[in-house]
Amino acid sequence: MLTFLSWSMIIVFMILIIKKKLTPFSALILVPIAFTLVGSFLGLYSAQVTELKEIANPTMLDQILVIGDWTVAGVKKVSTTAVMLLFAILYFSIMLNAGLFDPVTKKMIQFAQGDPVKVIVATAVVSAVVSLNGDGTTTTLIVCTAFIPLYKELGIKMMNLGVVLILMNTIMNLLPWGGPTARVISVLNTVGEQEILRALVPGMIASIIYMLGVAYYLGTKERKRLGIKKLTKEDIEKLTEVTDPDTLALRRPKYIWFNAIMTILIVIMLVMGTFPSVFLFLIGTAIALVVNYKKLSEQKQRIQDNAGDALQVVILVLGAGIFMGMFTGTGMADALAISMTKLIPSSFGRFWGLIVAILSAPGTFFLSNDAFYYGVLPVLAQAGEQYGFTALELGTASLLGQAFHLLSPLVAFIYLLLNLTGLDMGEWQKESAKWATGMFILFIGMAAITGAVPLFK
Questions:
Q1: Intra-chain end-to-end CA distance of the chain, in Å
Q2: Which of 34, 198, 219, 270 has an alpha carbon 20 to 30 Å from 191's alpha carbon atom?
Q3: Measured at the alpha carbon of residue 95, what is the angle toward residues 92 and 97, in degrees to the nearest 5?
Q4: Res. 334 pLDDT band, cuts 50 70 90
Q5: Domain assignment present for 325
């Protein structure tokens, strides 16, 4: 009965998310509470309550009251991740406000000088740099604002921008403060952000090099078609000039080097594991505010304006903690994992890392990240442990299919990209998927070579 209840809960959760009947946050809270209460009425949690509370014969009321303990336990497990995400998103948002990435965009356009090869390569570089903030909407707005006029001026196909931008954003979205990786960390609470970053970095570096190669190839095709058009200094200034007065008021060009050095140091220390990531981003956010915005009113306004993006991610992580707290505490996770292992032939178990990696591609395309990582990954991870795979290995494997995720119609910001560029979704998906396949193979290959995801045990 517990197995049936657990499968029912996962299916209902995914349907509600896919059909958009509830927001992910509401579904993460309400669905497990509803199903946990059903289990309480059926008396399914006696063993779990006895283990937790040392009550010999727990009543239905005891089983209901212990829901609060499971909830608190789940929140505690993800609290560090939630705080890290809060300050990471705030930090990079403040850097965007201060104009840290403006010179990069301008230098890339100056570097391009009307050569389609250089323009498309510059698009790739800027997309990767701006994607450091972990927000696809921000990346789309910044890159499209900077490059669409240049693409139109030179007659370069807008499809190249759409493909390069989305796939570079895909790679950088695997950073710990990006959506999918943050979800994996929050669900598999034994996995740390620095551990999973070290596991992903080789594949990310190889994919960045691959995408620069793709950008170069696309550029050579456009150069043959269009030739090279020289741009004057006035043309470049017009393309890179910021005219919005509110945006200009936030820029801090005199602190550009300070902000750049601080950001580079934070990223280096994050990768090396010198300090906990929470500490790095907390201190970085405080310093960024004090240095760039002297007045208290300005500091408050920066926090207020940027808090919305951070809060949306943080409450999802906390919601995931509540979901997993009840899912694990009730014993439903164990029941589901056991049933899952029975469905897979034991001879396939030694390939579980590869199986999870392959399943993650259609899983994260046809399902939202919330549905896949909060609903499916815990099941795959529990089953994989039976075959000797660690949570880190399976968490890493589940992220490799992200190569295709941002091509999904379930990703909201792609409609902004398609609207700004005027691209047809079907044609854009087809062209992007061609290059995303190579990235997916690279992800799996590098994970296998480095041992981050063993192909078999």
A1: 32
A2: 34
A3: 115
A4: confident
A5: yes
Of residues 205 and 130, more confidence is placed in: 205
C-beta atoms surrounding 294 within 10 Å: 10
Nearest alpha carbon to residue 186 among 271, 91, 75: 75
SS3 457: coil
Contact (Cβ atoms closer than 8 angstroms) between residue 100 and residue 260? yes
- pLDDT at residue 340 tops 70: no
Q: Give residue-wise pLDDT tens across range 347-364.
A: 788 889 999 999 899 888
The pLDDT tens digits for 238-263 are 766 777 788 888 899 899 999 999 98
Task: Report pLDDT digits (tens) over 388-441.
Answer: 899 899 999 999 999 999 988 777 678 778 888 888 888 999 999 999 999 999
The DSSP annotation for 89-137 comes to HHHHHHHHHHTTTHHHHHHHHHHHTT-HHHHHHHHHHHHHHHGGGS-HH
Three-state DSSP state, 44: coil
The total of other beta-carbon atoms located within 10 Å of residue 208's CB is 18
Least confident of 121-125, 175-179, 201-205, 259-263: 175-179
Interior/surface letters 155-192, b for 16+ CB within 10 angstroms, e for the rest: ebbbbbbbbbbbbbbbbbbbbbbbbbbbbbbbbbbebb
Residue 190 amino acid letter = T
Is 455 domain-assigned?
no
456, part of any domain: no
The alpha carbon of residue 159 and the mean position of all alpha carbons in its chain are separated, in whole angstroms, by 24
* Residue at 249: amino acid letter: A
C-alpha closest to that of 176 among 194, 150, 152: 194
Domains: count for the chain = 1
Residue type at position 295: K
Instruction: Locate 69 and state its tokens.
Output: 């303990």
The CA-based dihedral angle spanning residues 278, 102, 264, 110, taken in that order and rounded to the nearest 10 degrees = 150
pLDDT of the residue at 381: 87
DSSP characters for 251-317? --GGGHHHHHHHHHHHHHHHHHTSS-HHHHHHHHHHHHHHHH--SHHHHHHHHHHHHHHHHHHHHHH
Structure tokens at 112: 């391009």
Residue corresponding to tokens 């509540």: 322
